[in-house]
């Protein structure tokens, strides 16, 4: 009896299994809702970015030419001055006394020359004596000019208009040649020097638009243009220095600032996709391409430049193909997809049949 009961139980299970509904295949499941976009050629403006250093168009450290005591200082730190404005007057009492002596000697030499010219006209002196007196007169005048030049060096003037830095001297201080008095910078127009790899020099041309940003003003962009490209390549970095010019009317840019430079390259046609559509696995990049039957497959792509949330595809896709933009994290190869809120492509085709 026990054996008969077991046989009946097994027979009942077999009959129940035969009558059960078959498990539906995975393909019969609902399509995955995703966002789909068509790849097209679009206008694209690539850019080249590099860190640069700002410097004034004209910049100099004001120094004295002679050793002398400071008599008067005509400026204060941070003053804006005109070209030729006096900055420091040095004591020049000895030179003024020497100038008075030299002027007296020159006047006497001139009077003697005039008198000897009268005597020479009467043939009372030799012409050689007249020539000697003329040379004496010329030497006396040269001595006057020399001392006046020395006195001029006692007044230190601004070589160009600009803004002064910190004052380094005070009245009564002894200055010598090379002693720093102050720095002077023309801040109305600034230069920014930045490196460009030699492989990208073909993309740089004089007059190209340049944008600059500084950490001190993160929300502001400075507009400039490429001024010149250095003639030499640094053998260590394999890069050339490019100089961009920026108008700086409010003096927001200062010498020595770090400027993030962005060179705007010419607009061109490129195959662009949203960056969120690209899946990165190790060194491989791919997108989910939607086939005509509504299923997805991986398409490995090569990425060029990136800008404003879009990436340039240089290999792996063609214009007109459709890709999944949003929802890539839940896909597997062969999955059926549909644009969010619509039927899948395969279902739409089947409905027409």
UniProtKB/TrEMBL annotation:
One of its GO terms (cellular component) is efflux pump complex. Residues 192-263 form the CusB-like beta-barrel domain. Keywords: Coiled coil, Signal. Residues 1-28 form the signal peptide. Residues 90-150 form a coiled coil. Pfam families: Beta-barrel_RND_2, BSH_RND, YknX_C. Residues 59-180 form the Multidrug resistance protein MdtA-like barrel-sandwich hybrid domain. InterPro entries: Beta-barrel_RND_2 (IPR058792), MdtA-like_BSH (IPR058625), RND_pump_MFP (IPR006143), YknX-like_C (IPR058637). One of its GO terms (molecular function) is efflux transmembrane transporter activity. Residues 271-338 form the YknX-like C-terminal permuted SH3-like domain. PANTHER family: HAE1 FAMILY EFFLUX PUMP MFP COMPONENT, MULTIDRUG RESISTANCE PROTEIN MDTA. Belongs to the membrane fusion protein (MFP) (TC 8.A.1) family. This is Efflux RND transporter periplasmic adaptor subunit.
